[in-house]
Prior knowledge:
GO terms for molecular function: hydrolase activity, acting on ester bonds. By secondary structure, this protein is an alpha/beta fold. It has helices at about 15, 30-45, 50-55, 110-115, 150-155, 160-180, 180-190, 200-205, 220-240, 260-265, 280-305, 320-325, 330-340, and strands at about 65, 125, 140, 195, 245-250, 310-315.
Amino acid sequence: MPQPRRSRNKTCLAFSFLLSPLEVNMSSKIKSVVSIVTLLFILPNLISQNQAQQVSNHSIGAFYVFGDSYVDPGNNDYILTIAKSNNPPYGIDFLNQIATGRFSNGKLIADFFASFLGFQNYSYVPYLAPNFTIQSQRAVGFASSGSGFDNRTAAFLNVISMSKQLEYFKEYKARLASTIGQEGADNLTTNAVFFVNCAVNDFLITFYGPGRRLLAAGTTIGQYEDFVLQLLQEFIQGLVGLGARRIAVSGVPLFGCWPYIITFYSSNLTDVLVTRACNDTLNAVGNDYNMKVQAALSTQQNSSANIGLKLAYFDTYTPMLNIQRNPAVFGTSMIMIRNLILR
């Protein structure tokens, strides 16, 4: 299900590896502020000021992004699905207020990362765009809004599954090799940064949503978490098999506090706009899954140390939890946002 964009536990790891040699349910104003706050939370914790200078002087050949609507730069515009954001008010903070297919008022967190890594503004482009060219594009998005690791999740909205996104990257690399040669393509992939942001739709669409009927009877949430985690690990191995060596993986966000979730699970169905509270059960699921992801990434990196694999966990959960619990610490804007969500 497409969701509004919000972009530590170990966040300093998320970009320190770069230095090695080698819904419509949230108002645009809220999304804009949260995107800024996310950036302020994440980037200062990714690397120190000295490291930032090293990154700016370091050659990062490419940036590849996979996942859902948090990082989809507009691929869904070019497929047959209702999960599109190519109309107002999306894109109102872009030049000329043009909707780009991003489920956001402006940039996604991956856009900020692309700029941070040295790519030009708005150079993070959808792979399926008709004007996409192998020769000029090195910051590429394969993500698709509404997608998940579970193919049943993507099928619900007829969007691009994670397995298909991996196929597209394989196709991209073959096209790249035909342009700059196989050795050049391999070197570019090895020195690239990969960012994977996915899984929340698996829980909201497939386990807790309409896709539940497709699961085996008696499937528990713990079992489904493990299933999604296995698919994540297989996806990472797929990237590694195609040459990836620097991969950042995002956990799921604090989705029990999404406005439409608060409304849908309200304890007062006769007045859902008055009785407002985050869903602690869903937030606990997110926290549990994120803990499993962190443990799995650590194990996977240790087992692949011999090939130089560097994995980083990217925490989108804790910063928003801190804002939800202590908005005053982060200024009056955060108090306003919390009150708008929970009022």
